[in-house]
Design goal:
Helix content is 51%, strand content 18%. The radius of gyration is 26 Å and the shape is elongated. The longest helix has 25 residues. The chain contains 19 helices and 16 strands.
């Protein structure tokens, strides 16, 4: 019996992997003693798959399966964190790169894909070590081949590969002395088993028997002797380079340190290495091509933060669009995550930001309806670290400004959250934008180029003139009890519109104050708020 992969099932699988890794994250972090005991393998695997799932979720419903797979594998590659995250991204990339997504998948196709993935992962690692994720990947490939030879169907090949991986995971302490000393299995291998188990469940509906959890014996570590004789820093970056430059890059980096992994293709590469000479590792990337998103971690500092991090105070995290709005939020003391339509904020970035704060209390202002649920998911993870996090469901930038205006870090946390939530909820918000294609709105049909007025998140006005539509939006928002009107001018917008509205309010409503800001937001000539 053959198997045909479907776009909707693939979308569901990406989310299932994220959920499974989220559940196992703390356990995998605790297993992390090799190659360095920095306690982040589970978190890195989780963030890597969140990046892939976010890339898929951002695409419209009618996108084809090959396009979904490409988005997912590119998302994994660009968002890969840590040694195991990079290897996991390569395994997934190789599996789907080997399958013909437009054809029915046979049992031997699955086995071939697993062999291709294992081979690609081994090739990507500078010095492969037995008893790691590589051993588990090889066992999965062997199990898939055995399943084919026994006459298994395509779906069952995945299941038998996962079963073989679970057995191999239990053997990793026999292969690697450091694991045996700590009494644990390999953390990266455990992450791979979680993904394979999720895949088995997605394809067969069966939930595999979970692997036993292993609590490690803490290993002593201090200073730069974090691993005896090992490098002190982890260096990661994305690299834009020709494939011909990768072999020389591997050779150079291999001589500088260890835990080398280079994965990718089509001019997009993810580079990971542990070194003492950070500058030399980055210089090697510059010689090969264009490195970017460079991240350097000092292992000793990382462990010190994880083992005894002192948190204090309260922080506010804001998602903002437009340079002007971002600057306003920073001036108010907030940590800002800037986004645009082309560069949205993903869960991985949210989680990284929240985890990177030294505050014991955090208030989050998503300022976008799409981001509320994502920030909630990130906040749930951070609360497990003992941080108090409140996500105020602001749907508009101007609601965030209103909440920031009443923020008082000297108040009790709950009181501050209530005050900020109340300010946001009592802010009537609207906007003016321009339609980019024909459509049907709550205010009737529109054509490309029509000016649309938004009131409380819904299209309420369709017109042809920005000033007239802005005037209509303001009329919908104004009330007899209004005290303050805030106008935020977008990138390249006509400033006379805001000036005209200000003059009108001064003439007609002397009881209302007016504030105008340069927001710099794209696609919206004007944001309007009434408090």
């Amino acid at each position: 019996m053959v198997l045909r992969l479907r776009a909707d099932a693939f979308r569901a699988w990406t989310q299932l992997c994220v959920q499974a890794l989220s559940t196992a994250r703390a356990e995998i972090d605790a297993l992390n003693v090799f190659p360095v005991p920095d306690g982040d393998t589970g978190t890195n695997a989780y963030l890597t798959f969140v990046a892939g799932a976010d890339a898929v979720a951002a695409l419209p419903d009618d996108v084809t399966l090959p396009d979904l797979v490409r988005a997912h594998t590119d998302g994994l590659l660009m968002g890969a964190k840590g040694n195991s995250g990079v290897i996991l991204s390569q395994l997934v990339r190789a599996v789907f790169g080997d399958l013909d997504l437009d054809a029915e998948v046979r049992a031997d196709d699955v086995a071939h894909a697993f062999r291709a993935a294992s081979g690609a992962a081994h090739a990507a690692v500078g010095r492969p070590v037995e008893g790691t994720i590589l051993s588990v990947a090889q066992a999965a490939a062997d199990g898939a081949q055995d399943a084919v030879e026994s006459g298994a169907e395509a779906r069952d090949v995945f299941a038998l590969a996962a079963a073989s991986a679970r057995v191999a995971l239990e053997r990793t302490p026999e292969q690697l002395a450091r694991l045996a000393e700590a009494g644990v299995v390999d953390a990266g291998g455990r992450a791979l088993v979680v993904v394979l188990d999720a895949t088995e469940r997605a394809l067969t509906g069966r939930a595999p028997t979970p692997a036993a959890q292993h609590v490690p014996t803490p290993l002593a570590a201090s200073g730069d002797d974090f691993v005896e004789g090992g490098p002190a820093y982890e260096v990661m970056y994305l690299l834009d380079a020709d494939e011909s430059e990768i072999a020389p890059l591997r050779h150079t980096l291999d001589a500088l340190g260890d835990s080398l992994v280079v994965v990718g293709g089509d001019r997009l590469w993810n580079v990971h290495v542990h070194v003492d000479d950070v500058g030399a590792a980055i210089e090697a990337g510059l010689q090969a091509g264009r490195p970017y998103r460079i991240a350097v971690t000092h292992f000793a500092d990382q462990v010190a933060r994880q083992q005894g991090r002192q948190r204090s105070g309260r922080a506010v995290v804001v998602a903002a669009t437009g340079a002007g709005l971002a600057d306003l939020c920073r001036e108010a003391g907030a940590h800002v995550l800037e986004f645009t339509r082309e560069r949205p904020v993903d869960v991985a970035t949210m989680l990284e930001t929240l985890r990177g704060l030294d505050a014991e209390e955090v208030v989050v202002l998503p300022n976008n309806q799409r981001y509320v649920g994502l920030f909630d998911a990130a906040a749930k993870q951070v609360r497990a670290d003992g941080v108090r996090v409140a996500v105020i469901p602001t749907h508009a930038q101007v609601q965030g400004l209103a909440a920031l205006a009443v923020h008082d870090p000297g108040r009790d946390f709950d009181e501050d959250v209530v005050a900020m939530s109340s300010a946001a909820a009592h802010t009537q918000h609207g906007a003016v934008t321009v339609a980019v294609e024909p459509g049907i709105t709550m205010a009737g049909p529109c054509e490309a180029g029509d000016v649309l007025g938004v009131v409380s998140g819904d299209f309420a006005v369709v017109g042809s003139d920005v000033a007239e539509v802005a005037d209509a939006v303001l009329d919908r928002l104004l009330s007899p009890t209004a005290e303050l009107v805030t106008l935020v001018v977008g990138d390249g917008a006509d400033h006379t519109v805001a000036q005209t509205l200000s003059r009108r309010l001064r003439d007609e409503r002397v009881d209302v104050d007016v504030v105008v800001y340069e927001g710099g937001q794209e696609n919206y000539p004007l944001f309007v708020a009434v408090e």
